Amino acid sequence: MQLRHSILKVLAYFDLFDYPLTAEDILFFLDQQVDMLALTGTLDTLVNDGCLFRLGCFFSLRDDPALAERRVKGNQHAQQLLTIAAKGSRLLFRFPYVRGIGISGSLSKNFADENADIDYFVITRSNRLWIARTLMHAFKKLNFLIGREDWYCMNYYVDEEALKIEEMNIFTATELITLMPVCGNGALERFFDANDWATAYLPNYAGKKASIKATHPDSWFKRIVERLLDNRFGDRLDNFLLALTTRRWTKKTNAGALNKKGDRMTLQTGKHFSRPDPSLLQARIMGWFNNRMKGLAAKWPEFFRGE
Questions:
Q1: How many domains does the chain have?
Q2: What is the overall mean pLDDT for the chain?
Q3: Disulfide check for 101: which of 89, 121, 136, 289 has CB 3.0–4.6 Å away?
Q4: Which range, 132-136, 204-208, 302-306, has the best average confidence (pLDDT)?
Q5: Are 76 and 199 in a shared domain?
Q6: 99 — phi, psi (to 5°)?
Q7: Average pLDDT, stretch 118-136?
Q8: Looking at the predicted structure, is the pLDDT value of residue 251 above 60?
Q9: Same structural domain, 143 and 8
Q10: Could you tell me which of 70, 129, 127, 52 has the C-alpha nearest to residue 95?
Q11: Both 108 and 197 in a single domain?
């Protein structure tokens, strides 16, 4: 019963994103460790009992073949964008104070629809996050002129003093273990070490490591800027850019500004981080997930005793 509960939990989470899963996917995202033989046997039982549906090589809570078709197309498109994202990561790693670049969002889960952005997770040197972020976002604005701003969505920054993700839940654990490291100097490995708490939610993650080395020497621009700003002026400049960005985003949030997808524009800022406000998307997804689980518990209470 516990394994059935765990399987339904995984499928319920990804069903929020209209994303059916293979048996291998389910095994990876389970909240317990089992062998594939036990998993496939239980999946067959759940299918026979009408608790879930087999869509080709995928499993879903919904009997909708269009979900499988959508996933296949999204996986194919993701392969094209991942090639672009790898090149973009190497370019972004050349910016001053950048110490690690990873691919995040839906692309890190090998899925991209026709409106997908390329999202990056960025680690910077301590106390220089806002200089790095400002330079990178100036570069993004230049790409806006040629219609490629969607290729450079740097939406989550931390510096080397704030590697631990404070919000510990199934959403952040899933985002963490699917993060695709591309470029780094050891900061990404330290990031995964700092967030080993994710194994409590997803034990098959088992302490993912990311021993990513820089694939090319630091650019002359990166070396010169870091040398010039390794002083009190650099400290003041970083603080100034933090204050400036915070004021700009506070105005956007208070004005109810929306992005091109219709979502509220918000940003949480601090000396050591820049990230989307977890009280919005993250809280919304967790609310949907909890409601979905309540619905499943009402439908199949025998699988959810003790919850």
A1: 2
A2: 90
A3: 89
A4: 132-136
A5: yes
A6: -120, -10
A7: 96
A8: yes
A9: no
A10: 129
A11: yes
